[in-house]
Write a structure and sequence with these properties.
Mean pLDDT: 91
Distance between the termini: 42 Å
Number of helices: 5
Order of helices and strands: HHHHH
Low-confidence stretches: none
Helix content: over 70%
Shape: elongated
Amino acid sequence: GYSIVIWTIEGTVLYLVAHAFPIGLRYPQAFFVMFFLGLSVTLPQAPGYVGTLELFGVTALSVLGIPRDKGLPVILALHGSQFLFIVILGLVALWKEGLSVTTIASADLH
């Protein structure tokens, strides 16, 4: 049920982000790229999927005829917006719990 909704939102976000750049990505193509990005997160990688996500995204765009030098900024913008969204959600959750990044960083974990 929710899976199709989430994938539709993700593909639409990719499509909208891509329209900020002159690459001519069509709506169905955004889902092709999302498929590749989904595959990328199944591999072992650095925290935050840094590098692997970009490689798969740029490769997917190049399969669609979009040059790597035009595709990389799109994928970086997408990845950056996703990261920023998660950070904001995390900060809101901390605030709702009465915590802060400083409090957590100074906590004794032992």
